[in-house]
Every structure is written in C-alpha cells, then in structure tokens.
Amino acid sequence: MNIGVDKDTGWNFDNSYINLPESFYSRQEPDPVQRPNLVILNKPLASFLGLKEKKLQSGAGIDILAGNEIPEGAAFISQAYAGHQFGYFTMLGDGRAVLIGEQITPQKKRFDIQLKGSGRTPYSRGDDGRAALGPMLREYIISEALFNLGIPTTRSLAVVTTGESIIRERRLPGAVLTRVAKSHIRVGTFEFASAYEDIEQLQALADYTLKRHFPNIGNSKDRYLLFLREVIKLQAKLIARWQMVGFIHGVMNTDNMAISGESIDFGPCAFMDVYDPETVFSSIDRRGRYSYENQPKIAKWNLARFAETLLPLIHDDKEQSLNLANSELAKFDHIYDDYWINGMGSKLGIFNIESDDINIINKLLILMHKYGADYTNTFKALTMGQFTNIELFISTEFDKWHDKWRMRLSRQEQTPEESMRLMKKNNPAVIPRNHRVEDALEAAVDEGDYSVMERLLNILSDPYAYTKDQDEYSILPPPSTCPYKTFCGT
Ligand code: AMP
Ligand code: MG
Questions:
Q1: How far, in Å, from the CA of 92 to the mean position of ligand 1?
Q2: For atom 14 of ligand 1, which residue has the closest CA?
Q3: How many domains does the chain have?
C-alpha cells in the first residue's frame, strides 16, 4: 500500500475522529481489489467537495476510490458502534467500510469520505466485508434522489466495480461505493459508548459531536440536554420529510440513524407507489416494524435509546436526568406533527395552516387508500389540475373533497398561481419508481449498460421541474411486479 499519492485531485483531509479514545475505531486499510473500474462518478458532488473530476477518473484516482491506494493525509479507520436491530441490542461496527478521511471542502465544510464494501474489518464477524454492485448502485440512486428532493441525506460520490465476484445467493459482481456524509456518528455510536459504562468516553463522544454538528450550543452546563433537543428536532423533521414524499427507509435500526439528521444506510428502502400506510418493502421485516406508518413511532423509539445513553451526562441526579430527558422526548410528537401538517398543507397549496386543515389532509389520504391511488401521482394531479380516469378521481367522494379543498384555497389571500407554485415546490413530479430502479440495476449489473441508470439519474436530478420527459417516469409498474420486495445486507 502506497501512502502519499495524488495531491492534485484535491483531497484535503483533516481527521478529527481519530482524536477520540481508541475504543471508538480501529485502524483499517481497505483490502485492494483486482481490477477496479469506475462505473459512475457524481461530478457535481466531486466539484462541491473540491475534487477534480478528471483526476478522479484517472488510474490513480480510481485506485483511491477502490481502496487500492491511500491518498495523502488519509485516516483509514473503521468505526465501532452498537445498535438495536429490530428491537434487539447488538455490538456492531463498520463491518465492510473504511473511513478514508474527513474532507474539508473549498467552503470549509467537513465531510466523511467512506469506502463501503472495502473488505473485512475487526467488526466483520463472519461476513466478507464486501458489497455487491446492485445494492451499491441502489444506494447511489436513492441517496441522490433524496438529495435532489431537498431531504437531508448522505450522498454518493462514486461506484467502482472490483473485478471480483462475491458470493450471496449466487455469484455477484463486487463493488465499492464512496459515501459522503456530514459524519457517520449514529445513535448506535452513543449506544456503543454507553455500553462500556465509562463516562469519560461517553463525554468525549458527546463533546466531539456537539463541536462537530452543534457548535452553537457551546459549552454550557446543560449542553447535553440541548444536544438531545436538537437531535430530536432534526429527526422529527427528517421523518416528516420522508413521509411527505412516501419514502420508506426499511431498516430504521438505531445504527442506521445518524446524529447529523441525514438519511443513512439505504438497504431495502423504496418509495411507495399506491398509498397504503402499512406498506413494507423489506423482505426481512416480516412483522412490519418499519412500515411507512410506523416510521415516526420508530424514530421516537430510537431517540429514546439515544436519550438513555445521555442520562449520565444530563444531570448528576438520576431521577432529574430521567425527567429532563423524558420531557424532551415528549416534545417529539408535537414537533413532528407540526412539520408534517405544514408540509402536507404546502402539498395542497395551503400557506397558513388552520385548525380544520388536518381534516382536509386526512380525508384525502383516506380516499387515496380506499381507491388505491398512487401517492406521488395524486399530488401531481392536484398540482396540475389534471385528473385522469382513475377510480379515485371519478368517485363522488373525491368530488366532494375537491370542492371543499378549492373553497379552502379560495379563502386564502394568495392567488391560485401562487398556490400552484407552492404545490410544485412540494410535490415531486418524479420519484425513483421501484420498477425503474430495478430496470436500471438490471441493465447495469447483467449487461454492463449504465445508460439506463444515467437517464434515470438525469430525470431525478430536478424532481420538481415538471418537464415533459419526466411524464414517462410517472407511469406505474405493471401489476405483475407487485408486491415489490427489496433485500438488504448484500
Ligand atoms: P446494515 O444492515 O447494512 O446496516 O449492516 C448492519 C451491520 O452488518 C453493520 O455493522 C455492517 O457493517 C455489517 N455488514 C453488512 N454486510 C456486511 C458484509 N458483507 N461484511 C461484513 N459486515 C457486514
Ligand atoms: Mg447500517
């Protein structure tokens, strides 16, 4: 392994995580791969990070994205964490990922650069530390789609195929994804620190996270309570944003919840087509723990696990600490509801929410469910005032609802044009439809044809554009592809 390559690319690392106690990470170099081949590069993201696209595409650049070379100043660590998976506590850690460093962008922002699928680490347990091409491309598509929808998320800089195959249910081409995140500190990282019952380590992690993500909180004595408050707010907002676009994460384990408030770890996630609150896509989620309607409840459950880890820091008196944390957690519902109702109001062109608006919103959702209407396309139709011949729109119940909604809009001072503009900004014309994502992955994985994925990414690059060529991507899947299931851990 060579150290000290390729300054010209723009890698500019300043690694702060390694200043934490050593239990939080392991030094870990990625395992080199046989024949790295760059199959997709996120050029706008590269430029945002201060990286030169041409250099990344060169042999030396690709070697770094594959984990075959380590750029100067890299940290190369795997992070330790724990987590509640489907409700049960486990010790975990980056079993197939290496943080190569914290990139300081030209705007002086700090981002983790992580290689996912880069080989075994001390946290791999029995697994191979590798990732398959399909799931890495899937993470690329979904994370970039969320980003373009304006939803906080980790992002994807590149996918490199390894030239090696990995064994899952069958042989699959291996790949490495370069993930970019505000940080990879998770609720599970705090659970890890808490499990050691070493208050100094816990405090070191909390102070580090405060400094990195919440510098405005400062050094006051009540900083850990304020920290909890801010994390609750960020998560309430994030989940409300997911709900508004019909996004289902699929595995909201506490190790997949980032303290920064970004969406992270896209395994069996998907966007809902037909509106059904009980929708579950993940093949391993047999009881529907992580269904669409459960996401806010699960977020609150995860935040309770987070709050528990902070109890020794919040107050010296155990009881007081518990009361203080509980009073913060109790605010979650209100904060979430507030984001959600205002957001849903915007989707209906309502500028200032009034008390009866919740009934208008809920009634629409009930009708969508009853008539099996597509979530995204219903809001698109309302935005454009163009109603196709589907069951929902031809029902008398919808007619009645529509009259009530129009009356409500006519009572606000904003013009219908202003309402429509608000709706356009909040109702995507396209989402990454599952069958489109599958088509893109199939072409790439089975035929090495990346053009389908590139077209899809292009269509998704401005989901609120309402262009003609987006229409084709709003078409629903043929009935045979339902019910859609996705698989994780691959
Ligand atoms: P995930 O379901 O992707 O959130 O992963 C849960 C845990 O399993 C994390 O600690 C991962 O690092 C680990 N993991 C997933 N796939 C692999 C793999 N192929 N090799 C080693 N560890 C893995
Ligand atoms: Mg994970």
A1: 8
A2: 95
A3: 2
Index of the ligand 1 atom closest to the CA of residue 128: 20
Tell me the per-residue pLDDT of 196-240, one tens digit each, with 9 for 90 and over: 989 999 999 999 999 999 999 999 999 999 999 999 999 999 999
Query: Rounded to whole angstroms, how far apart are CA atoms 361 and 350?
Result: 11
Who lines ligand 1 at CB under 6 A?
92-96, 123-124, 127-130, 251, 255-256, 265, 267, 488-489
Q: State which of 426, 450, 466 marks the end of a domain.
A: 426
CA dihedral defined by 60, 61, 63, 67, rounded to 10 degrees?
140
255 is catalytic: yes
CA-CA distances (angstroms) from residue 367 to 117, 243, 392?
A: 44, 17, 7
- Model pLDDT for residues 337-386, shown as the tens digit of each residue: 999 999 999 999 999 999 999 999 999 999 999 999 999 999 999 999 99
Catalytic residue among 6, 63, 94, 255: 255
pTM: 0.97
Range of the domain at 50: 3-183
CA separation for the pair 438, 369 (Å, rounded): 25
